Amino acid sequence: MEIKATALPVALVDSTGTQSLKLGQQSAEKNNMAIRKAAREFESLFVGMMLKSMRETVGKDKLTGGGHGEEAYQSLLDQEYAKAAAENGSLGLARTIEKQLLAEGAGKKKPDKD
Predict the structure, then answer these.
(1) In this model, does residue 13 exceed pLDDT 70?
(2) Is 38 exposed, middle or buried (0-12, 13-18, 19+ CB in 10 A)?
(3) d(CA 85, CA 79)
(4) Mean pLDDT across the stretch 17-30?
(5) Other beta carbons within 10 Å of 65
(6) Based on C-alpha coordinates, what's the Rg of the chain?
(7) d(CA 16, CA 71)
(8) Which residues does 13 contact at the CB level (< 8 Å), separation at least 6?
(9) What confidence score (pLDDT) does residue 50 get?
(10) Mean pLDDT confidence for 4-25
(11) pLDDT value of residue 4
């Protein structure tokens, strides 16, 4: 019985280790993307909470009448504002969190300064 090299998985055929390095790089890139996403989501959540707190301190608008509908749509608008702020990176919180998490993943104690 003859087994052809083309029938074997690439990881078994490639004895130089380049396949495992490629898989490691892909895994690291996925990890970096997950860290970036989590940092942006956290910043978005934080900005959303700030906007909600701000709205509670401001008086009600008597011009539009208020009501449950306005509260619901105002909440959705605040969520979109928070999402846009996080994607824009205007606060820089996500960038700082991302640097810290990447530094901890690389075994460093403190992230490098800009």
Answers:
(1) no
(2) middle
(3) 10
(4) 68
(5) 9
(6) 24
(7) 62
(8) 5
(9) 93
(10) 53
(11) 47
pLDDT band of 6, cuts 50, 70, 90: very low
Would you state the structure tokens that stand for residue 10, as one six-digit string? 């690439």
| Residue in the block written with tokens 């998985």 | 9
Amino acid at 92: G
First-residue to last-residue Cα distance in the chain = 61
* HEC sequence for 72-84: HHHHHHHHHHHHH
DSSP secondary structure string for all residues of 23-39: HHHHHHHHHHHHHHHHH
Is the CB of residue 111 less than 8 Å from the CB of residue 103? yes
Using CA atoms in the order 92, 97, 102, 108, what is the torsion angle rounded to 10 degrees? 110
Phi, psi at residue 81, to the nearest 5°?
A: -60, -45
For residue range 36-95, list pLDDT tens digits in order: 999 999 999 999 999 999 988 887 777 766 777 787 888 899 999 999 988 888 788 999
Residues making up the chain, counted from first to last = 114
CA proximity to 73, closest of 89, 61, 85: 61
> Would the pTM of this model clear 0.85, i.e. be above it?
no
